[in-house]
Write a structure and sequence with these properties.
The structure is a single chain. The chain is of the alpha/beta class and 331 residues long. It has two domains: 202 residues, Rossmann fold (3-Layer(aba) Sandwich), CATH 3.40.50; 97 residues, GMP Synthetase, Chain A, domain 3, CATH 3.30.300. The chain contains eleven helices and nine strands. The strands form two sheets. A five-stranded parallel beta sheet has the order 3-2-1-4-5, with helices on both faces. Helix 2 packs across helix 3, helix 2 packs across helix 8 and helix 3 crosses helix 8. It is globular and about 65 Å long. The two termini are 36 Å apart. The relative contact order is 0.12. The structure holds xanthosine-5'-monophosphate. Xanthosine-5'-monophosphate (XMP) binds next to loops.
């Protein structure tokens, strides 16, 4: 760790001057990168989004972002990323629709760890292929934030878990170095910087979404049919949470495809559809989590809406298990 990094580390925890931070960081990126090129993997999450806009402000067209749609994204996610970052900000963004390729690789696989490995491994391959197409790119951008560093056990802190947002990205493509413009910020500070940069509120305030995406929320084999049902059910739940202003009460809330089918009835006819689970948790550090006490009327309304409007789903259960013993994600 060099002197400048140590100084910035010492500032962590003090109230961030957002404007000054943006100005200094843009200068720091320019000083580090010069007229060389940077490649950034964008996930649509807060950290990589803020990172992208900061890098774009600093080096403009010398930044290329790659967004890989692995088929396990939430409803409209790829479309929104394109609209905002390519449309609004004019960022050089390559969107790779790789759903078919990912699902083909994951065909028949039901073991959770195996599924994760396949998604992670394929992600790296797609990313590498895109990087090669671009020719020489000197730097790899990363949306690493301060808790990632702490959790990975750097700077005298004990490792809690291997930080998995960026852990799997290729190191052997031949990058000269890393650019990590939000490395010393906490999540709320990243959000404040994002807001000041003009990233829409709904994107800046987004809940964390795991790298493997819906793959860890879709039990059993990953199929387009199941993922599409899950996407729609998840959207209904998140939308209702926002409309009822309950979204600020939970750090994470989402739907899960259980892979269990049960009998139901719709329009006087028998159905045989999937059971969807819903989960809302409150947590400060994601190591422990409590169940958010959603109003029962609200829960039954969501259940009914999912079971009646989402084709292929006909029953909803509510996950009321804290972490531990359960994890936040189902897989
Ligand atoms: P668990 O399920 O372990 O999740 O209680 C704790 C937090 O980590 C997120 N999570 C992940 N994030 N890649 C990520 O980027 C992953 O593979 C992954 N698995 C879990 C989870 O959403 C929660 O915020």
């Amino acid at each position: 760790m060099n002197k400048a990094e140590k100084e910035r580390l010492a500032k962590v925890g003090k109230k961030l001057n957002v404007k000054a931070y943006i100005k200094n960081e843009i200068e720091a990126i320019r000083a580090q990168v010069g007229d060389k090129k940077v490649l950034l993997a964008m996930s649509g999450g807060v950290d990589s989004s803020v990172c992208a806009v900061l890098l774009h402000k600093a080096i403009g067209k010398n930044l290329t972002c790659v967004f890989v749609d692995h088929g396990c994204m939430r409803l409209n996610e790829a479309k929104e990323v394109k609209q905002i970052f390519k449309g609004k900000f004019g960022i050089n963004l390559i969107c790779v629709s790789a759903e078919k390729r990912f699902l083909e690789k994951a065909k028949g696989v039901t073991d959770p760890e195996q599924k994760r490995k396949i998604i992670g491994g394929e992600f790296v391959r797609v990313f590498e292929e895109e990087a090669k197409k671009l020719g020489k790119v000197e730097f790899l951008g990363q949306g690493t934030i301060y808790p990632d560093i702490v959790e990975s056990g750097v700077g005298g802190h004990k490792a809690v878990k291997a930080h998995h947002n960026v852990g799997g990205l290729p190191k052997d493509i031949g990058f000269e170095g890393l650019v990590e413009p939000v490395k010393y910020l906490y999540k709320d500070e990243v959000r404040a910087v994002g807001k000041a940069l003009g990233i829409p509120e709904y994107m800046v305030m987004r809940q964390p979404f795991p790298g493997p995406g819906l793959a860890v929320r879709c039990m059993g084999e990953l199929t387009k049919e199941k993922l599409d049902i899950l996407r729609k059910a998840d959207f209904v739940f998140r939308d209702e949470m926002a409309k009822a202003k309950l979204d600020k009460k939970a750090q994470q809330f989402f739907a899960i495809m259980t892979n269990v089918r049960t009998v139901g009835v719709k329009n006087n006819a028998r159905t045989y559809g999937y059971v969807i689970a819903i989960r809302a948790v409150s947590t400060s550090q994601f190591v422990k989590a409590g169940v958010v006490e959603l109003p029962f009327k609200f829960v039954t309304k969501v259940a009914e809406k999912i079971a009646t409007t989402v084709k292929g789903a006909n029953r909803v259960v509510w996950d009321i298990t804290p972490k531990p013993p359960a994890t936040i994600e189902w897989e």
